[in-house]
Amino acid sequence: MTLVTGDPETLAPGKRTARPAPPRPPHPLRAEATRGFAPWAGAAAFLTPAVLLAVEADRWQGGWAETRTELHAMQLVLVPLAAAAGCWQGGRERRRGTGELWTTVVRGPLVRLLAAALPLALWVVAGYLLAVAGALLATWPYARGDRPYADLLPADVVALLAAAVAGHVVGRVVAWRPAPPLLAAAGYLALALSGEAGAGGLRRLDPAMPVAEGLVPVGWQPVAMSVWVCGLTAAAVLAYALRGRRRRAVLLPLAAAAAAGGLLVQSGPALWRANPVEGRQVCDTSTVPQICVNARYAGMLPQVTKALSGVTGRLEGVRNLPVRFEDRPGEPGDGEVQLPLLTPIGWSVVRGRLTDPEQYAWEAVAALQEGARCGEPGARLRAVDAAVSDHLAPNPLQEYFDALDAKGDAARRAELRERRAARERLASMDAGERRTWLSAYFAAVGDCDPAGVPAL
Predict the structure, then answer these.
(1) Where are the alpha helices (DSSP H) in 98-148?
(2) Which of 77, 163, 259, 373 has its CA 20 to 30 A from that of 124?
């Protein structure tokens, strides 16, 4: 006899004990996205540009266009990296020996391939976008004008996505463990060589082609570039996953890629236009000469004005000066001289600050002296120029150069004595006499008349 115990309600006739439902298996995409190699690929896509950008932060931090250019330049490294990561992921089933097992599942080859390739590609894109956000945040406190640029970002993201998926296809086709690093090396060389100026029209097909800070793409260029890279990748995916007559579908993305590639190649320089902001400038009209800086760095005007305040103060009341210092692309116009360059960032300007205001002022005086002079000045003119420069903005290294000349041959020592004498004579003049002399000096410089330069 067996004794049965338990809740009378559960043992009553017609009653059954409720059993918990079995746990639902995780979605394949969720499993691919949260486990395995994909998150590591995303970390590499973040750390690689983060480290490279940090090493060269002086070259871009503080300029929005420079930040965009440096982020786009990361494609030269990240596209091969994404392709290599995808290639390693594509060879996973072969390394595990589960390739035949996957052929028995219900999903077709195309769905299986995308389920394995897309999570890694999205991780790579997420890592890159995180690096982009970090670079923009690093630039924001030091920007002195302009605005952030996102014109190249969509095509860059699509190129990374396409590279990762295309690399996955290569990994499934090529049964060789060294394939990922070799694919990365080949991709890097291909992008680097096609991006050279000597590559002709083919360089416009390069998703990592260098872009100057003063250029912006026309509106359809990122779309055409995206269609170009996506068309090639889609064709590779369909050629691998489809069989029989269905493989004819490869022709559609190939045709789209060919049309987009032809448009990119044939458009030539029309793919890019000058940044309209770079053609404008902001000016301080309270000084003589007026001081203008490019609108991309409008916030630098107070610093530049302060750095040149000693020069403009000593030129007060002097006639025959240029109207302004200008800071636009191309040659200065009539009555203008070129402002010492604020770009490329990392030289005169680092993180929104002038690195050496004294040197900058000396370069501005050199621009005033050389603005319209013809020919090579003789020893007398060099002595006069040195006296004017020493009065307006002394060269920070002048004592060092004088010491070198003092140790030189007889000709260099004689020229040094002449320079020192000219400086002393200009310094000994009273204010009115000095203004009159400087007015005559700049009149001769402006007329390109070395013989008219007054003596000292």
Answers:
(1) 99-102, 109-139
(2) 259
Report the half-sphere exposure of 254 (CA within 13 A, side-chain side).
10
**Interval 172-182: pLDDT, tens:** 999 888 999 99
Q: What is the pLDDT of residue 202?
A: 83
CA triplet 284, 286, 289: central angle to 5 degrees? Answer: 80
**Locate tokens 């005033």: which residue?**
368
Q: Are 279 and 222 in contact, with CB atoms under 8 Å apart?
A: no
pTM of the model: 0.86
In contact, 169 and 234? CB cutoff 8 Å: no
Alpha carbons 36 and 384: distance in angstroms, whole number: 73
Rounded CA gap, 315 and 108, in Å? 81
Tell me the pLDDT band of 1, cut-offs 50, 70 and 90: very low
Beta bridge pairs of residue 336: 324
Query: For residues 375-391, b (16+ Cβ closer than 10 Å) or e, as one string?
Result: eebeeebebbbbbbbbb
For residues 78 and 162, the answer to whether their CB atoms sit within 8 Å is no
Q: What is the rounded average pLDDT of the residues 206-226?
A: 94
Interval 389-399 mean pLDDT: 90
Helix H, strand E, coil C: the string for 262-324 is HHHHHHHHHHEEECHHHHCEEEECCCCCEEEEEHHHHHHHHHHHHHCHHHHHHCCCCCCCCCE
Q: Please write the tens of the pLDDT for every residue from 258-298.
A: 999 999 999 888 899 999 998 899 999 999 999 999 999 99
Per the prediction, the chain carries an average pLDDT of 88
Q: Is the peptide bond before 289 cis (omega within 30 degrees of 0)?
A: yes
Q: Which two tokens stand for residue 128?
A: 């890159």
| Contacts of 378 by beta carbon, 8 Å cutoff, 6+ apart | 450
pLDDT tens digit sequence for 346-356: 899 999 999 99
Mapped onto helix, strand or coil, the DSSP state of residue 211 is coil
Judge if the upstream peptide bond of residue 217 is cis by omega within 30 degrees of 0. no
Q: Fill in the amino acid letter for 197.
A: A
